[in-house]
Design goal:
mainly alpha, globular, two-stranded antiparallel sheet, two-stranded antiparallel ribbon
Amino acid sequence: MLIGNTRVGPPLRAYGNLPPTAPPRPSARRSPAPGPAPPCTVRGSGYNCAVDLLRPVRAFDRLQRRRGLLGFPLGVMKKYSDDQAGQLAALMAWYGFFSLFPLLLVFVTVLGYLLRGNPSLYRDIVGSAVAQFPVIGRDLQVDALGGSAVALAVGLVGAIWAGLGITLAGQRAMDQVWSVPHRLRRSFLSSRLRGLVILVVLGLLNVAATTLVGLLVGGLGGGGIKLVGFVASALLDVGLFWAVFRLFSPDDIPTRQLWLGIAIAAVGWAVLQALGGIYVDRVVRRANQTYGFFAIVIGLLSWLYLGAQMLLYAAEANVVRARRLWPRSIFEPVTDADVQALRAAAHVEERREGERVEVTFDTRE
């Protein structure tokens, strides 16, 4: 019905006889259920791909925690990083560079007096000793000290004092590797006395080893005797590194905990000598034409640094095995080995008697 221009009555129905519908009520928009992010989404700037680049590393972390064959080498590398052993190796290479020539001077001088009546054997032994440093073995000529007895004694004392640098750097590195607090380390005098002992013992062992090598190079006997000489030389290398680890490591470390590092160092030394010879033939010889003697200096420093790294990795393997510092974590949560290693690293900073460093960790889930 129309009243004026206004229609009065039931509302108009659309689409035939459909019943009237209630007006829509406003409702809150529901958030989608959480789930894995799509691999790629399209945005105004282009494609945005959510890819976990660390997923393989996380998988490796879970695997190495269950497999000791993977966890042990990772534990050694983590311990090497915790101790900042790369800097310790650089320090050993630096002092080794400046200690090498004075110690070689002492070596050839003492050997010249001992083998005064056998110049052929003297030349073989000196040549074998210098050949252990392949970077400089062909270019280095070392002459014995001479002069009066007083001048000779002063020269030897000065050379030995200069050679103490590498022994002090080695003691400092081993104390750091074994997490010895500064307050328990050797004093100024005792560390230098230990350094003298190290020089004497390693010098005598080196003379024995190079004597066998000299006899081997001299061609005594047939192939069977040469093979025996090679095996004996290898065993003497093992004995040399036994002395290195025993003399440089803290006194309270049992010798049975050092054998793994001794074996690693002996094998690594042989590999390093072989690689050093290849490096000299293919790199240093060619660089000599451009850089001259500086190429030999750089090559020697690099070779000494690699040797120091090899020695410290072997020492870290001893510590990780003795204290069961594996498996270590790459991601959270930390492991018991992490807690033990980090506490030991903090205790190193105890420098005075009565000082104690306590380390706490948040509760792990």
